[in-house]
From TrEMBL, chains A, B:
SUPFAM superfamilies according to UniProt: PCD-like
Keywords tagged on the record: Lyase
TM regions (residue ranges): none
GO BP of this protein: tetrahydrobiopterin biosynthetic process
Organism, scientific name: Fodinibius roseus
Annotated protein name in UniProt: Putative pterin-4-alpha-carbinolamine dehydratase
Amino acid sequence: MADPLSLDEITRQLEDLPGWEHKNDKVSKEFTFENFRDAMGFITRISYEAEEQVHHPEIFNVYNTVDISLSTHDAGGKVTEKDITLAKTIESLYNN
Amino acid sequence: MADPLSLDEITRQLEDLPGWEHKNDKVSKEFTFENFRDAMGFITRISYEAEEQVHHPEIFNVYNTVDISLSTHDAGGKVTEKDITLAKTIESLYNN
C-alpha cells in the first residue's frame, strides 16, 4: 500500500509535469487533440499502461478533450507515488 | 441541424431506455462492468458508433464504471433525436 505524499512532495513532483494541477486530492490535466479519434487513441494507450501499473485514472472525454485525474483509492483517495508514476507515463504518451 | 425534443417526447423515448435519466439537459446512464478491461472495451465499441453517427457522448470512466451523457451541441446543448438514437445504440452494445 502506498503512502500519501506530502503537499511539498506533490508540488515538487509537479514541477516535472507541465500542465498538471493538484486539486481536490487529485493530480489532473486536460489534454486537447485534433479530433475524437486522436482523443480516443490517447485513452486506449493510457488504458494499457494503467493495466500494467495496476493503477487506473479517472478519464473524462468530450469529443477532442481528455481530462485525466489521478488519486490512490488504497491511500484514502490521496495522491501517492503511484499517481506521479502514472502521470509521468501519460505525459510521455502525450509527447510521443 | 436537429431540433430539441420536448420534455414529453424525451420522457416517452426514455421508456424504451431502462436506466437512462434526463437531467441537466442531458440523457445519461451509468454502466458497471466486471473490471477495467470490460469498461474500456465498451468505450471502444461506443467510439466507433459515435464516429459513424457523427455524434459524440460525454464519457466518464473510473475503473469498472462508465458514465455516458448525451446532448446535442448544435441544438444549444439540448436533447435531440440524435441523442436518443445514440443512446439506443449504446444500450444495444451493452446488452450484446
